[in-house]
């Protein structure tokens, strides 16, 4: 893994070795902040505007004021790639917290928000994308505002760890019987040629790739139904897949050790993967070419 030493802090660029994180940082002490993960292919961002839009929606929702416009943040993020001479597949992690101040639940007065962003290499999960992944189901015990990309990820972390300990890739979350999303991705089933997913309410993150999946479905004349589905529907589905900036369109072939249909990715999932590769200008390491 390459180390990218230039980090965006506040609104300037700093060498990684010069970074100092104060202990009394509200992100650290309260999880009082929000974040984004943005995909990079061949040194260029994918869905950058969508991520910047969601960043500002999250900031508004938690009342963090960032003294910069969307255009300025976009420019800074573009410069971050240039400064690091990024040319491969990767991701940027960006975090904004309410700032550094003596610990007190109440917002500190006149304290600037802290903004950090850094680049990492991230090769595509080609084998998983081709063969599909195993998952588990877990109760969704998160708060009601999952549309905010908040730093408070403990329920997500615990669910993903449970998946890992059971040899699985992801945990599918459900509130009572209704499936919401996964610990770090959105989830869909296909039944009789229709894609079903949870509606874009406050109970799920409105994924940037989810928005694209909806568009791909429309382009392919496949119905995209946002009425949601139940845990039982998962096991009775023709196809199951998940989506995120790091997982792309990922086939799910097993849930709680039960195989979905014949245990191989279904035709609609494959079509969406092809659309994704086309949309993201992925020309090398193409899934369908290497199948
Ligand atoms: N996760 N739902 C949750 C809970 C997520 O954390 C994510 C993203 C998504 C998909 O969002 P998008 O399509 O915009 O990546 C859905 C990122 C990748 C992460 O936390 O690492």
UniProtKB/TrEMBL annotation:
The UniProt entry's GO biological process terms, in alphabetical order, are: amino acid biosynthetic process; carboxylic acid biosynthetic process; D-amino acid metabolic process
Looking at the record's lineage, which domain of life comes first?
Bacteria
What is the E.C. number?
A: 2.6.1.21
Top EC class for this record: transferase
Q: Name one GO cellular component term.
A: cytosol
Q: Which SUPFAM superfamilies match?
A: D-aminoacid aminotransferase-like PLP-dependent enzymes
**Any keyword Transferase?**
yes
Question: Where along the sequence do coiled-coil regions lie?
Answer: none
Q: Which cofactor does it need?
A: pyridoxal 5'-phosphate
MF terms in GO = D-alanine-2-oxoglutarate aminotransferase activity; pyridoxal phosphate binding
Q: Which Gene3D superfamilies match?
A: 3.30.470.10, D-amino Acid Aminotransferase, subunit A, domain 2 (3.20.10.10)
What family, per the record?
Belongs to the class-IV pyridoxal-phosphate-dependent aminotransferase family.
Q: What is this protein called?
A: D-alanine aminotransferase
Source organism of this protein record: Virgibacillus massiliensis
């Amino acid at each position: 893994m390459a180390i990218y030493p230039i980090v965006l802090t506040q609104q300037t660029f700093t060498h990684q070795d010069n970074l100092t994180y104060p202990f009394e940082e509200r992100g650290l002490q309260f999880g009082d902040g929000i974040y984004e993960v943005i995909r990079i292919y061949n040194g260029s961002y994918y869905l950058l505007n969508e991520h910047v839009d969601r960043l500002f929606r999250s900031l508004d929702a938690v009342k963090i004021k960032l003294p910069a416009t969307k255009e300025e943040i976009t420019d800074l993020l573009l410069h971050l790639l240039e400064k690091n001479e990024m040319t491969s597949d990767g991701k940027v992690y960006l975090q904004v917290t309410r700032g550094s101040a003596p610990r007190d639940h109440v917002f500190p007065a006149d304290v600037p928000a802290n903004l950090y962003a850094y680049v990492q290499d991230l090769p595509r999960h080609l084998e998983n994308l081709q063969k599909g992944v195993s998952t588990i189901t877990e109760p969704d015990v998160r708060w009601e505002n999952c549309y905010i990309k908040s730093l408070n990820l403990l329920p997500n972390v615990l669910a993903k760890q449970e998946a890992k300990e059971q040899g699985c890739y992801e945990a599918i979350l459900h509130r009572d019987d209704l499936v919401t999303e996964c610990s770090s991705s959105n989830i869909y089933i296909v039944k009789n040629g229709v894609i079903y997913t949870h509606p874009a309410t406050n109970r799920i993150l409105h994924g940037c790739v989810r928005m694209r999946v909806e568009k791909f479905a429309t382009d392919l004349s496949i119905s995209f139904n946002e009425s949601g589905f139940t845990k039982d529907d998962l096991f009775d589905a023709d196809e199951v897949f998940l989506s995120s900036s790091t997982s792309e369109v990922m086939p799910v072939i097993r849930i709680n050790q039960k195989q979905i249909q014949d245990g191989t990715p279904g035709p609609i999932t494959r079509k969406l993967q092809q659309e994704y590769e086309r949309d993201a200008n992925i020309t090398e390491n193409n899934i369908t070419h290497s199948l």
